[in-house]
Design a protein that fits this description.
With 174 residues, the protein is α/β, with parallel strands linked by helices. Helix content is 20%, strand content 24%. The strands form 2 sheets. The chain has a 5-stranded mixed sheet, with helices on both faces. Strands 5-6-7 form a 3-stranded antiparallel sheet, with no helix packed on it. The radius of gyration is 19 Å and the shape is globular. 18% of the residues are buried.
């Protein structure tokens, strides 16, 4: 920081410039109850080309019990993360078919489709659903089951499943 932007006794304010280079593409953030399961997440991500030069891996420590729930950790991890995109996951997902390039390409496609998007995920309740049954829009590939895909994508939804969702650093929701 140069002298003209430092906060001093003579100068009680400071300047902040937001034209910084984001050092990583993805911050992969997981709420971790089991370190063994989490190691599987990280290893599968690295195998899927989420390399440490493009991504950081952040583990939120819930190993000794539920210190954090699905909401309380989000605000804090955003301030600690350094990626352009912040990815939130459970500690039991695995990257099996799609990897870094696929996720990056889909987010770029979403950006072209809706430049104001704020959060994206793998499943959720459809936007303004009037159906009496429980509607869900999802695309999940489960290595223990069959690949499922319902709806056209991208698809606007009102809710998301917290197992995997992404926010863009410059438009995050808290």
């Amino acid at each position: 920081m140069n002298k003209s932007t430092e906060k001093t006794d003579e100068n009680p304010y400071r300047f902040i410039s937001f034209d910084r280079k984001i050092p990583k593409v993805f911050s992969m953030c997981s709420l971790v109850q089991s370190e063994e399961r989490y190691k599987t997440v990280v290893n599968s991500a690295i195998s899927a080309k989420f390399s440490v030069d493009k991504c950081e891996f952040i583990a939120i420590d819930n190993r000794d019990g539920p210190r954090y729930d699905g909401y309380t950790w989000i605000r804090e991890v955003i301030t600690e993360s350094i990626g352009e995109y912040i990815v939130f996951t459970h500690d039991d997902i695995e990257f099996t078919n799609d990897g870094f390039q696929e996720l990056f390409d889909r987010l770029e496609e979403l950006e072209r489709h809706d430049p104001t998007w704020m959060i994206a995920g793998v499943a959720g309740g459809p936007y303004k659903s009037t159906s009496s049954k429980k509607d869900v829009v999802y695309r999940i590939s489960d290595m223990h089951g069959t690949g499922r895909r319902v709806g056209n994508f991208p698809h606007r939804v009102e809710t998301l499943d917290e197992c995997f969702f992404v926010m863009k650093r410059d438009r995050f929701v808290v």
